[in-house]
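BUG: 3D viewer hangs when loading the predicted structure for this chain

Environment: internal workstation, default settings.
Expected: structure renders.
Actual: progress bar stalls at 90%.

Input used:
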Amino acid sequence: MAGVRYKRILLKLSGEVLAGDQGFGIQPPVIVSVAEQVREIVHLGVQVGIVIGGGNIFRGLAASRLGMDRANGDYMGMLATIINGLALQDCLENLGVPTRVMTAISVQQVAEPYIRRRAIRHLEKGRVVILAGGTGNPFFTTDTAASLRAIEIGAEVIMKATKVDGVYTADPEKDASAQLLKEISFKEVLIRGLKVMDATAISLCMENNLPILVFKMGGKNNMKRVLIGEDIGTLVGSETR
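Structure tokens produced before the viewer hung:
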């Protein structure tokens, strides 16, 4: 563990990350690349929990805007996260990484129910734990699920994988003058309305002093580079230097 910044992390993956350039579904080369990066940090001795979204398959909020009942839409989105979790588990285990999928919704034929103490025990045994099904409740995002699970399992940081280098002052794809922020406080994220995670998730992290490290997933070995201390991404915390 020498030289590793964190012993236990919660990795937040959006469903869109798994879709790659095609924008929907699961792109095999992408999910294999994600699994390979996770394997690298597991080999460093880091305990890894993963909360995964389902936006590459179904978005409950988007469906509700088209007239679907919001609760039904959100439950469908939770099921999508389980599909993604099972796909990632398969890739990890093909690489020799022991993995458990735990869900907030009971689907016992394919995954374990989420039990906090059992999840921690899996982590202590060196297993990657994929925490699917969101919080198990409609009207909450997987960002909020990531914050909640990270606090429950005693993670030292949330590592949020994105398609950009970190947190910018504005959307870098729309504003050429947008600047990358290396550090920023929770309060400033909320005040400025920056799209790091939703406000509920940010508030949970702020109340529990749980830092968020936002980094680009696409870079080769970026996850490992972050954990060994390279200056990558943006650190969101209680105080900034």
